[in-house]
Design a protein that fits this description.
Blueprint: H1 2-17, E1 27-30, E2 39-42, H2 47-50, H3 54-68, E3 72-78, E4 81-86, H4 88-99, E5 116-119, H5 131-149, E6 154-160, H6 165-177, H7 190-214, H8 219-224, H9 227-241, H10 244-268, E7 274-277, H11 278-294, E8 299-300, E9 306-309, E10 317-321, H12 329-344, E11 348-354, H13 358-370, E12 379-384, E13 387-388, H14 404-421, H15 430-450, E14 458-459, H16 462-465, H17 473-490, H18 505-515, H19 517-527, H20 530-550, H21 559-582
Parallel strand pairs: 5-6, 5-11, 6-7, 11-12, 13-14
Antiparallel strand pairs: 1-2, 2-4, 3-4, 8-9, 9-10
Helix pairs in contact: 1-3, 4-18, 5-19, 6-7, 6-9, 7-10, 11-12, 14-15, 17-20, 17-21, 18-20, 18-21, 19-20, 20-21
Length: about 600
C-alpha cells in the first residue's frame, strides 16, 4: 500500500507542480495512533520542488489525492505531515494482494551471490552446553533464517574449541581420578561426563593452591608452584607435539563430547552447514603468524613469545604465540577467518559471540587488516548480552551452570504441568501430548530469549516463559492452534467475494499488520534483531484474539463476510507460522 501511495503522490506532484519526485523522496509511514489516518506522507523532502510552505504543500496534495483516487476517503494536515485515510475497498484490495502472496513471500536467495557466513555456538569440548550457549544457538540460528528470508545466501558454521589448556584439564582429571569411566559405563551423555572431570580438576586445583598458601606462599607463588597445573600444561605441549598417547586420549574424550553435543543440537532444533575444529584451524593461524614474523609485521620477545603491536590502531600489544610455541585463541580465529574466506569469498562474516569478547574481535579485525587482508572490513561481531538466572551468574569452573539438556527437559515438564493444570490436551493420545509438550516447552524457551533485544543482558525465568496468556511463545502457539482448528472445521477455504464485504475496524487493523510482515523481515535482517519478528508475531496474535472474541467467524450468517473472515484467519495463521519459523519455533496443529 505504501508503494501505491508513493505512486499517487508522484502523480499529484506532476499535476500540481509539473515536477515528479523520485520515489526515494516520497516518505510514507503508518500514521501514529494518536492521529486520524492510516498512512502519513512526510512532505518536507518535497518542498524544494513545490516552493511552498509545508502545510500548503500537504493540503494541495491531499485535496488532489482524495478528488482523484477512489481508494482514499479523506485527509488531514498536521504541520508538515499529510495523514491519509483509506476506504474499506482499499483495505480489501490490499488483503486480496496479500492472500495471493504478493508482498508477503520471502525472497529467494541468489545462488551465485557471495554468501553471508554466520558463526554461532562455538562450544568448548571440556563441558556440556549451558544456558549461555542456548541463547547463542537460538540467536545464531534465527539470524540465519531471517537473513535467508530477506534474500541472502547463508552459510551456518560452528567452530569447536577442541584444544587448549581447558581440554587438557579434563583429560588429566580423567586420567587421575576417572577409573576407566566411559559414557557407556555407567550410561551418561559424553559431554556431561567430560564436564564432570573439568569441574573436578578445578576443585582439586583450588585445594592445592589453598594448601600451598597455608605453607606460607603468596598467591602468585602458589599458582606458579602448582604441580597439577604444570602437568596440564605439559599435556598441552605433548598434544601439540603429536604425542601418540596424548592424542589418542584427546580423540576418545572429544568423541564422547561430540556425541553429546549432537543430541543437544537436535533437541534444540539447530543445525550447521559446516563445522570447523580449532585443532585444524590453529595450524593455519600459526603459519600465518610465523610468515608475518619473517616479514617484520609482528615481533618476538625475549621469552620467545610472538606479539603484534596494534597501538597505532588504538588497541594494544596482543599475544599471538606463547613462549613455548603453543597457540592462543587469536591464532586459531585468524586461521579460521582466512580459511573461510578462501572457501566462500563471503560478502559478510557474522560472529555471534557474547559481549565479553568485544575487544577480541576488534583485535582480530585490526590484525587481519595489518596482515593485508582487505576483506577484514566485512567481519562483524554480533555482540549479544549475557543471560542470567534469578540466582545470579553461572560459573562453569564451579559447576554452577544450567545444563542445556536439563533446561530443555525442565521446560517440557513445566509445559506438561501447566497444561494439565489448565485442563488442556486431556483428550489427546499420550504420544501426541508428549510431542506437544516438547513444542510448547521449546517454544516458550526460544520465544522468551528471542523477544528480548539481543544486545541486552537478560534474566531468564522458566516459569514466566510458559504462560498461555501475554507475550509468550505458548500464547502465540495456542492462537495458531486455534486458527488451525477453525480452518479444519471450515473445510476448504471458500472463494473470496468479488466486492468488499463490509469489513470492520478490527479487521482493517489485522490487514494493516499483515501488510507489514515483509518490511518487518527486512528490518530484522538489516538490524540483526530476531526480537522484531517475535514482537511482531505477538502484536498480530493479540489483535487476532480480540477479533476472535468480538466477532463470529464460522457462525457469521453473511456468506461473503464469513468467507472473508475464514480467509483472514488463514492468512494470519500463515504469517504467524512463518514468523515463528524464522525464530526456529515449531507450531503445534492442536493444543
Amino acid at each position: 500500500m505504501e508503494k501505491l501511495i508513493r505512486e499517487f503522490v508522484a502523480v499529484a506532484m506532476g499535476h500540481i507542480y509539473g515536477k515528479k519526485p523520485d520515489s526515494a523522496r516520497i516518505q510514507v509511514q503508518e500514521t501514529r495512533k494518536e492521529f486520524e489516518g492510516d498512512f502519513t506522507v512526510v512532505v518536507f523532502p518535497l518542498l524544494s520542488l513545490t516552493g511552498q510552505a509545508p502545510d500548503i504543500t500537504a493540503k494541495r496534495i491531499g485535496e488532489y489525492l482524495v478528488d482523484n483516487f477512489d481508494l482514499l476517503s479523506g485527509y488531514n494536515v498536521i504541520k508538515g505531515f499529510l495523514n491519509l485515510s483509506l476506504t474499506p475497498v482499499a483495505w480489501y484490495e490490499s488483503f486480496l494482494q496479500l492472500s495471493g502472496g504478493k508482498d508477503l513471500n520471502s525472497k529467494s536467495a541468489q545462488t551465485d551471490s557471495p554468501p553471508v557466513v554466520i558463526e554461532y555456538s562455538s562450544p568448548n569440548t571440556n563441558k556440556p552446553l549451558h544456558l549461555g550457549h542456548v541463547r547463542n544457538n537460538l540467536v545464531g540460528f534465527s539470524l540465519s533464517r531471517i537473513l535467508e528470508a530477506a534474500g541472502n545466501r547463508v552459510v551456518m558454521t560452528n567452530i569447536v574449541n577442541d584444544r587448549g589448556i581447558h581440554i587438557c584439564k579434563s583429560m588429566l582429571a580423567w586420567q587421575l581420578w576417572g577409573g576407566g569411566e566411559t559414557p557407556d559405563n555407567p550410561p551418561r551423555k559424553g559431554d556431561q561426563l567430560v564436564g564432570k572431570y573439568y569441574v573436578m580438576f578445578e576443585t582439586e586445583y583450588r585445594k592445592e593452591i589453598a594448601k600451598l598458601r597455608m605453607q606460607g606462599l603468596t598467591e602468585e607463588e602458589a599458582v606458579s608452584g602448582s604441580e597439577l597445573m604444570d602437568r596440564a600444561r605439559d599435556m598441552l605441549r605433548k598434544w601439540e607435539a603429536g604425542d601418540p598417547d596424548t592424542v589418542s586420549l584427546w580423540k576418545e574424550m572429544n568423541s564422547w563430547v561430540y556425541s553429546g553435543f549432537d543430541k543437544t543440537y537436535r533437541d534444540m532444533g539447530v543445525r550447521f552447514d559446516k563445522i570447523y575444529y580449532e585443532s585444524d584451524t590453529y595450524k593455519r593461524g600459526r603459519q600465518i603468524v610465523l610468515e608475518a614474523l619473517e616479514r617484520g609485521i609482528v615481533y618476538r620477545k625475549e621469552d620467545n613469545s610472538v606479539w603484534v603491536d596494534l597501538t597505532a590502531e588504538g588497541l594494544d600489544h596482543k599475544l599471538l604465540l606463547r613462549g613455548d610455541g603453543t597457540a592462543v585463541y587469536m591464532t586459531q580465529d585468524l586461521g579460521t577467518a582466512v580459511i573461510r574466506y578462501e572457501e566462500y569469498r563471503f560478502s559478510r562474516h557474522i560472529y555471534v559471540v557474547g559481549n565479553e569478547q568485544n575487544y577480541h574481535f576488534q583485535v582480530l579485525k585490526a590484525l587481519l587488516k595489518k596482515l593485508g587482508y582487505e576483506w577484514a572490513d566485512s567481519l562483524h561481531h554480533f555482540s549479544y548480552g549475557m543471560v542470567e538466572l534469578p540466582e545470579g551468574k553461572m560459573k562453569s569452573r564451579e559447576g554452577t551452570v544450567v545444563d542445556a539438556d536439563d533446561l530443555i527437559l525442565g521446560m517440557k515438564e513445566t509445559a506438561r504441568e501447566m497444561s494439565e493444570e489448565l485442563g488442556k490436551l486431556g483428550e489427546f493420545p499420550n504420544e501426541v501430548k508428549e510431542d506437544i509438550y516438547m513444542k510448547i516447552g521449546l517454544g516458550a524457551l526460544k520465544y522468551f530469549i528471542l523477544k528480548v533485544d539481543p544486545k541486552k543482558n537478560m534474566l531468564f525465568n522458566p516459569e514466566e516463559s510458559i504462560d498461555f496468556n501475554g507475550n509468550t511463545g505458548p500464547f502465540i502457539q495456542y492462537t495458531y492452534a486455534r486458527i488451525r482448528s477453525i480452518l479444519r472445521k471450515a473445510g476448504d477455504i471458500p472463494a473470496m467475494p468479488s466486492q468488499e464485504p463490509g469489513i470492520n475496524e478490527r479487521e482493517r487493523e489485522i490487514i494493516r499488520i499483515l501488510a507489514r510482515f515483509s518490511q518487518v523481515v527486512k528490518d530484522a535482517a538489516e538490524t540483526l534483531s530476531p526480537a522484531l519478528i517475535a514482537n511482531y508475531c505477538y502484536e498480530l496474535v493479540r489483535l487476532y484474539n480480540q477479533f476472535y472474541h468480538d466477532y463470529s467467524i464460522l457462525g457469521e450468517e453473511n456468506q461473503d463476510l464469513r468467507s472473508f473472515r475464514i480467509a483472514l484467519s488463514a492468512l494470519t495463521g500463515e504469517v504467524v507460522g512463518t514468523g515463528m519459523g524464522l525464530l526456529g519455533i515449531e507450531m503445534p496443529e492442536k493444543m
